[in-house]
């Protein structure tokens, strides 16, 4: 929670549910819904896509925030962040590394683009979380 009384908070969290067959449906704490897929040729999001989507959306929004904080918001026309990853070849099933490509269109030189990206990475809650080792508090109910 922020000490700033002007900071608005939003409920966060997600619940995935599925039956004996089919794929998980996911509902956000605010009532948003998304269905997942796992088939190789099925269009849609699988769990890894959702991870990459979270990182790309957070970094893109954070880049816009950084540009605004730097007084550059009028010079940025478009921000695109593409994220993919490499699964680990050994050990537990996990993403061993992320490939992140920022495209910043507008009246910016390379130094400003780099600075915006560095600030975005510092601002983004998702990238900061992934770079740490968050704790899991797991509960089991019937």
Automatic annotation (TrEMBL):
Pfam families: OsmC. Residues 1-15 have a biased composition (Polar residues). Residues 1-22 are annotated as: Disordered. InterPro entries: KH_dom-like_a/b (IPR015946), OsmC/Ohr_fam (IPR003718), OsmC/Ohrsf (IPR036102). This is OsmC-like protein. It comes from Pararhizobium capsulatum DSM 1112.
């Amino acid at each position: 929670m922020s000490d700033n009384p002007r900071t608005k908070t939003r409920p966060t969290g997600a619940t995935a549910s599925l039956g004996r067959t089919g794929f998980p449906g996911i509902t956000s704490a605010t009532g948003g819904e998304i269905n997942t897929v796992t088939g190789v040729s099925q269009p849609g999001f699988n769990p890894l896509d959702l991870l990459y989507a979270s990182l790309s959306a957070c970094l893109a929004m954070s880049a816009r925030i950084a540009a605004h904080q730097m007084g550059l918001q009028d010079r940025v026309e478009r921000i695109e962040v593409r994220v993919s990853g490499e699964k680990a070849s050994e050990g537990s099933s996990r993403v061993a590394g992320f490939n992140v490509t920022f495209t910043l269109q507008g009246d910016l030189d390379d130094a400003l683009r780099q600075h915006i990206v560095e600030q975005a990475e510092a601002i983004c809650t998702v990238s900061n979380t992934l770079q740490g080792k968050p704790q899991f508090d797991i509960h089991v109910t019937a």
